[in-house]
Amino acid sequence: MAQIGETRRELALDCFLLAGKILMENGAETYRVEDTMIRMAVSQKMTNSHCFVTPTGIMFSPSDELSTRFVRINNRQTDLERVALVNSVSRRLVAGEFTLSQAYDELQKIDQTNLKFNIWLQILAAATASGCFLILLGGSWTDLPFAFVFGGTGFIIVETILERTRVKFFAEFIGSLAIGLLALLAVHSGFGKDLDTIIIGSIMPLVPGLLITNAVRDLMAGHFVSGLSKGAEAFLTAFAIGGGIALILSF
Amino acid sequence: MNWPLEAFLSFLAAGAFGVIFNTPRQTLISCGLVGMTGWLIYRSYNFMMDDSVQATFAGAFGVAIVAHLLAKKFKMPMIIFSVAGIIPLVPGSKAYNAMRNIVENNYLEAITFASEALMISGAVAMGLVFAEVLMQSFFKHQAKRIQKKIGMTLE
Q1: A45-59: b (≥16 Cβ within 10 Å) or e
Q2: How far is the C-alpha of A194 from the C-alpha of A28, rounded, in Å?
Q3: What is the pTM of this model?
Q4: Looking at residue A170, what is its pLDDT?
């Protein structure tokens, strides 16, 4: 540690924590985040560093005698392009293609630019996925336009409420409530045929698939804190969706 | 069952999920292919053996293997490819039916569906775990072989 100067060490710590924060905020697995941070640290000759990552905060200790740094993670979303970009920055830092300050600049650029697909494209994708699932799960072709429209509508509602209130479970509850209501209206008015498949197809874009996969991979990598909390998040999401639909079905 | 149609639809669905999760643009087609592989394995197994739990296990296993290979090829995290492919295997309709029966006070039916949903999600998890272990030991073996070839010894 002695050969690294004070400012350089602080820059290195900023760099690692920013990388970890971006990864964790955008849906990477916890053990991958720890692995990436430790690899980056080893490439900067911090060989006995420790890091502890949870879905809500990252702790990083450069060595036994130096002070530990902590960063809080407030909002989590799914943006796998950022995960891939941070991964390639860390690869290039470890391979020696990037200096530390170059890597830090690159990470800040990744953190600040919005890489998401256009929102309309995302809505179209949600609608397409709903339509595809309707047919795959054995629905009839006459129901296809309903699943297409309701899937898109549900996605729009969830995104809009999420932007306004930042309460994820409320947004999902209202979204699935709207889907259930629309599907019920479509079937009762005589246009839709099968209520069940329309609803199942339309709620597919809201299913917490990433969280479930992440939770399983974290649990089997031995990260029980992260695995269980992600599992709880997935369960709550599923519960919110189920609650919205159940409320409609009970009429 | 109509194979080409199902293949196309599962490809489209997995690609659409790639857009929702914002995977990098150059991997969207691969994501679709992973989803298609998983769904076709699941459907053919289910068609032949008529056991949706085993079929889900096979599908998830296939998804994870293909995702690992693609992750090596693109030098990107494996999760980018596996997530979109896993979604079609998630037991959405079983969970829905369980909930519907609870709402209608058919608790026995509900328990049947709920335990099926639980078994299927367990099968998804086991498929991922098995593929992970297999691929890790395979890659380790391969790395050792290459190191031997170029005359490097392990530390």
Answers
A1: ebeebebbbbbeebe
A2: 37
A3: 0.87
A4: 92
Which of B10, B75, B79, B126 to mutate: most A Cβ within 10 Å?
B79
**C-beta separation of B14 from B32 below 8 A:** yes
Of residues A29, A81, A125, nearest to B79 (C-beta)? A29
- Condensed to tens digits (0 to 9), the pLDDT of residues A126-178 reads 999 999 999 998 888 899 999 999 999 999 999 999 889 888 889 999 999 99
**Residue B103 identity:** V
pLDDT computed for residue B88 by the predictor:
87
Domain-wise residue ranges, chain B:
3-90+120-150
Query: Alpha helix locations (H) across B21-103?
Result: 28-49, 52-74, 79-86, 92-103
Smallest Cβ–Cβ distance between A250 and the set B5, B103, B121 belongs to B103
CA dist., res. A116 & res. A27, Å (int) = 14
Question: CA nearest A241 in B: which residue?
Answer: B96
- Contact of B122 with chain A, judged by CB distance below 8 Å, is answered with no
R_g of chain B computed on alpha carbons: 18
User: Average pLDDT, stretch A58-66?
Assistant: 85
Q: At what angle do helices A144-165 and A195-203 cross, to 10 degrees?
A: 40
Beta strands in A62-134 (DSSP E): 69-72
Chain A residues close to B125, C-beta within 8 Å: 216
Of B21, B39, B120, B124, which to mutate for an interface test with A (greatest number of A Cβ within 10 Å)? B21
Contact yes or no for A5/A45 (Cβ under 8 A): no
**Contact (Cβ atoms closer than 8 angstroms) between residue A196 and residue B97:** yes
Is residue A125 a contact partner of residue A138, using CB atoms and an 8 Å limit? Answer: no
d(CA A121, CA A142) in angstroms, rounded, equals 24
Q: Are A5 and A100 in contact (CB under 8 A)?
A: no
| Pair of tokens at residue A63 | 């060595």
